[in-house]
Amino acid sequence: PRSFVLLLGMGLRTFSMSPALIPTIKDLAAQITIEQASAVMHDVSSQRTTDQVRKLVGRRVHELAPNLELLESNN
Questions:
Q1: Per 3-state DSSP, what percentage of the chain is helix, strand, and coil (rounded to 5)?
Q2: d(CA 37, CA 5)
Q3: pLDDT by residue (tens digit) across 22-73?
Q4: Taking CA atoms, which of 4, 9, 10, 62 is between 20 and 30 Å from 16?
Q5: What is the distance between the alpha carbons of residues 47 and 60, in angstroms, rounded to a whole number?
Q6: 59-70: string of b/e by CB count within 10 Å (b at 16+)?
Q7: Could you tell me the pTM of the whole model?
Q8: CA angle 26–7–9, rounded 5-degree value
C-alpha cells in the first residue's frame, strides 16, 4: 500500500500487482484522492533516508485509510 500511494502521487495510473493485493489496493484507492497521494509524494521528497520515507508514508496511509493499519504494521 505504501508503494501504491507513492506511485499514484508520482502520476502512475496503471498498476500491475499480485492478485492477492488487488482487494487491498482497490480499498485504498477508494479512500484517497490523487491530490492526497501527490501531497504524500511532496512530503516524501524532503526525507533523507529510506527509513524516514517508510515511516512518513506509513503514517500518512494510516491517516488516510486507518482500516489498512494491519498492512502497515511493519513501519
A1: 75, 0, 25
A2: 5
A3: 998 999 999 999 999 999 999 999 999 999 999 999 999 999 988 875 454 4
A4: 62
A5: 14
A6: ebbbebbeebee
A7: 0.82
A8: 95
All 3 cell numbers of residue 73?
Answer: 504494521
- What nine digits make up the cell of 64? 488516510
Pull the grid cell for residue 56.
Answer: 512518513
> Cell for 57?
508514508
Helices 34-44 and 2-10: crossing angle in degrees, nearest 10, is 100
Amino acid letter at 4?
F
Cell numbers of 46, please? 524532503
